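Exercise 7. Predict the joint structure of the components listed below.
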Amino acid sequence: MPVQYADVVAWVKAFASAIEEGKDYLTQLDSAIGDADHGTNMHRGFRAAVQKLEEFPGDDIGAALKGVGMTLVSKIGGAGGPLYGTFFMQMGTALAGKSELEAGDWATAVEAGVKGVQTRGKAEPEEATMLDALLPAVQALKESVGDGSSLEAALIEATEAAEGGMKATIPMIARKGRASYLGERSVGHQDPGATSSYLLMKAASDVLATKNAS
Amino acid sequence: MKKLINNPEDVVTDALEGIQAAHGDVLKVAIDPHYICRADAPVQGKVALVSGGGSGHEPMHGGFVGPGMLDAACPGEVFTSPTPEQMLEATKAVDGGAGVLHIVKNYTGDVLNFEMAADLAREENIEVEAVVVDDDVAVQDSLYTAGRRGVGATVLAEKICGAAAEDKRSLKEVADLCRKVNGNARSMGMALTSCIVPAAGAPTFDLGEDEMEIGIGIHGEPGRERISLAPAKEVVERLAGPIVDDLSLQQGDNVLAFVNSMGGTPLIELYIVFNELKKLLSGRGVNIARNLIGPYITSLEMAGCSITLLKLDDELTRLWDAPVTTPGLTWGA
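Solution:
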């Protein structure tokens, strides 16, 4: 069953709720190795993005996601603003004019978003960043879609890969962002950005699993 | 959490309204989006200086807006970089046709947001140059970190470049001067206590009664090592030693010595630190030709200090001495 405009809106809303619920947890992870603002910043940004979506006319998924991205850039600040903002803007560009998505469209768009994050943040894998959750998720998404899996199955695989990637940041030495100042003292801490990125992937599989079950 | 606030979410806006109320003679505050600019902006034919960063470091940057220093400052949420939208609006408000210099502290968020803002400003045909300040010797400048942080040298660069811009130097000249200040300045800080981000409500890190953190940044992020409390003399050796080495200071060099409070440390202790610094430098034949002592780049209520040394030449000394009229720094006007 193709993804409709309403499903994409539901995905962003589900992620916004997950951020609201996990706000203190994300901030706590950030306190240990950064500057204790990831949860509050993401919450502020996604609350504004949901508001923006509700005012948004039409059924152009690409335009809506671009709007989300621009709202995030103008509301979050920190590194999260440009990085999550770029993710949604690039996804939106890849889906310009579409009102329905097949599994392949979704995989292509998420890949474009993640490439945007990589270009903007100039991070490499295994530096304990968002990318450590996002890159395995994209890989899993592409492989399952390539194997002809349903979108639902592909999203579940992507979420599992993101979760594995998130947990894999625990023993890593952070090499980007504020956590990198700690050097070896960053070992033993799960990266807050990888954690929110996992929640982003999880929100997608949660929403579409519910949809297909109903 | 014990703080003189109304509501954690309103801290930045409430403080900005207070700044407007107190200093409306030299600056004006815009609320949506947040920025502070000179009351007489834009100054035609003068390069405009825009800086910005998270709030919680007051008086930096908003307190340095005024003749002889910044044209505009963009305050983010507490310890959070401002957004490109703020920087773009500030840039447009102060552009007097001679170009705009963005002075950016080297933090991932600040750098990313200022890059996006500069792209947007150039699309609107405003000439923008950006200089990233990275003077903190506590962080290794290597491929394995986000690079040295921008700390105390930012204050000195904003003052010195502000004076050069008043002299009607070109954008390229002011940007080169900013790089020169950054290249000649090094800093290191330490904390006796952590600090509480209002929205977080709890200290960013825990520090025992008998411990101190050496090599902290200005966002409550932990530093490079945690050690037992020591006399001021030893703390100064730990902070100033790496700075002197990194700058390769020689006998006969003149420096500006900047002893900064992280917010909670009183002036009486800063003078003790300054005195130890003076003795250490004298021992190496280095002369403190200028000094700045007080809370200028703070980290909320954190107790602790940072030391910045800037190697001076005649040009830098003259520009440092030039008149400045801002809420945070005022002389010679």
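Discussion. The longest helix of chain A spans residues 5-33.
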